[in-house]
Amino acid sequence: MEDLDGLAVEDEVVLKRYLDSDKGSHLKKTIEEFISRLKRREYVNSFELASQTLFTLTVLIRFVAVKRDAAGSTATVLMQVVRAVGRRLIRARPVEIVIGNAVRRVLFTIREENTNLIKGFATDRHSAQPQLHAMLSKSPTESTPLETVKTSLGEAVVDGLQEIQGELENFHEPITKQALEHIHANDVLLVSGSSKTVQMFLKEAKRKRDFEVIVAEAAPACHGHDMARKLCESNISTTVITDSAIMAMMSRVNKVLISPKAVLANGGLLAQTGTHMVALAAKHHRVPVVCVTGLHKLSPLYAHDIDAFADLNSPGSVFDYGEVPDNVHVLAPHYDYVPPELVSLFITNTGGHLPSYVYRLLAEYYNPADNVI
């Protein structure tokens, strides 16, 4: 723990106390298995990552709520162990921003539930005037409001996390309901690569609208071919084009639909390679770029150092190893950064928002104190 600051070291000490306690081995195994799967890149989409992160932290909070340190505040202890585990998960896969988002959402829930409980007991205490007989007859062993808060906070937080999990599992539904508001008859839409969210958005619009979709193949992985096949299965008129044809086809496109890996605090996007090129082509032809995404991808991080989000693929997908000269280095980035000025609208599970509104969404989902975990 030499590379950790004082707060991180303190959090790790508190977590270690619980992991080394009775029955802590099962919790430790759950955390280590998740970290191992993160390092092996077994999770392929943001939903799985967010869902598993919430599940792991829920198991942690249930355990700590039962075996909490009676000498300390429950809220403080819960936040310490959540931060400690969150750091371990983020270190295992730093580029997966959705992991940090889930950890911050849990920390926000702990703060919120703790505040609500304290306010609730304070209201009860001041709304009713205590009777002298009740005050004198109260048993010394009865719990005080503070102790009641400590006892019920863990349960309240778990209930809050279950609500978040339910919201996460159904985030596609409120997004797809907005499809008919944004897709009109005879529209020509362009998408790049494959996205389940965009796919469901288009399928919902197909129920009452006839339109055409142009799918860029997104080489070298060419996930656009899978996207086109799934759209054709839904009887959507679909055309697959090479990435080099995007600029030429953009002049006849009405909207561009993209689904990013993450939405950053300034409204910029972290998306699959090639998305920045698509957005620049759309700007040149004055075509609106619509981002279709769930708010679990919303992050309070800024792109001060875009290399911090760099994730390189094997160059073997671009060149055969025998074809590359000795003095040539081949970089195959996995993600592009798309600045907010290239994005026209966000369609989320809470409605449509302009990029300038992202700061308000951040205030509703995260606490600024948790921006750096």
TrEMBL record:
Entry keyword set: Cytoplasm, Initiation factor, Protein biosynthesis
Entry superkingdom: Eukaryota
A GO CC term attached to the entry: eukaryotic translation initiation factor 2B complex
Keyword Ribonucleoprotein among record annotations: no
Gene3D superfamilies reported for this sequence: Translation initiation factor eif-2b, domain 2
Subcellular location: Cytoplasm, Cytosol
Molecular-function annotations in GO: guanyl-nucleotide exchange factor activity; translation initiation factor activity
Main localisation: cytoplasm
Quaternary structure, from the entry: Component of the translation initiation factor 2B (eIF2B) complex which is a heterodecamer of two sets of five different subunits: alpha, beta, gamma, delta and epsilon. Subunits alpha, beta and delta comprise a regulatory subcomplex and subunits epsilon and gamma comprise a catalytic subcomplex. Within the complex, the hexameric regulatory complex resides at the center, with the two heterodimeric catalytic subcomplexes bound on opposite sides.
Family statement drawn from the similarity comment of this UniProt entry: Belongs to the eIF-2B alpha/beta/delta subunits family.
Protein name listed in UniProt: Translation initiation factor eIF2B subunit beta
